[in-house]
Amino acid sequence: KKVLLLMAINTELEMTSLKITPQTYIYRLEFLTSQYQKKK
Questions:
Q1: Which of 2, 6, 16, 20 is the most exposed place for a label (fewest CB within 10 A)?
Q2: Spatial separation of the C-alpha atoms in residues 17 and 38, rounded to whole Å
Q3: For residues 28 and 9, is the Cβ–Cβ distance under 8 A?
Q4: Average pLDDT in the 4-25 region?
């Protein structure tokens, strides 16, 4: 399941690579992590 989470994060990074900032990355990481925790 961690692999799927990492894949989701990688996809997000690829999609937003042109306009990504550390804040955006942290926000998305927290969002994806929270979504992942809910699915457990």
A1: 2
A2: 26
A3: yes
A4: 71
